[in-house]
């Protein structure tokens, strides 16, 4: 049986890692850089209680949000708000305004 991966490991055509190895405290975890991802944007976000991202959009790249733990709200520029729990997903087109907020009392991972 193989050992659990902690630090990034790269091989011929693959890379594996653990979120815990990619940083401490709140903020972004740059998964793309650590795993040499070349064709899509990928980050993990650690959000303390009550924190929100602020509205933003992108020029070219859509985003996919995945809620690993806890509950967050995602709000769109048209005022629509959706609550996503563990396993929740949201795909957002590049020019669509969006913001995400942690509505819980504990730090959450996305």
Q: Mind summarizing the main beta sheet?
A: 3 strands, antiparallel
| Rg, alpha carbons | 15 Å
What's the CATH first level? Mainly Beta
Shape designation: globular
What does this entry look like structurally?
4% of the residues lie in helices and 34% in strands. The chain has one helix at 31-34, and strands spanning 9-11, 14-16, 27-29, 44-47, 63-66, 72-76, 81-84, 89-92, 98-102, 108-109. By secondary structure, it is mainly β. The protein has a single domain, classed as Jelly Rolls, CATH 2.60.120.
Task: Quickly list its features.
110 residues; mainly beta; Jelly Rolls; 3-stranded antiparallel β-sheet; globular
Which helices and strands, and how do they pair?
Elements: E1 9-11, E2 14-16, E3 27-29, H1 31-34, E4 44-47, E5 63-66, E6 72-76, E7 81-84, E8 89-92, E9 98-102, E10 108-109
Antiparallel strand pairs: 1-2, 3-4, 4-10, 5-8, 6-7, 6-9
């Amino acid at each position: 049986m193989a050992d659990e991966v902690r630090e990034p490991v790269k091989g011929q055509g693959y890379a594996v890692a653990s979120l815990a190895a990619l940083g401490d405290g709140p903020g972004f975890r740059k998964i793309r850089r650590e795993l040499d991802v070349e064709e899509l944007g990928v980050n993990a976000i650690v959000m303390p209680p009550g924190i929100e991202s602020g509205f933003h959009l992108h020029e070219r790249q859509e985003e996919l949000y995945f809620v690993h733990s806890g509950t967050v709200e995602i709000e769109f520029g048209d005022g629509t708000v959706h609550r996503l729990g563990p396993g929740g997903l949201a795909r957002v087109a590049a020019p669509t305004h969006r913001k995400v907020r942690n509505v819980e009392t504990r730090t959450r991972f996305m």
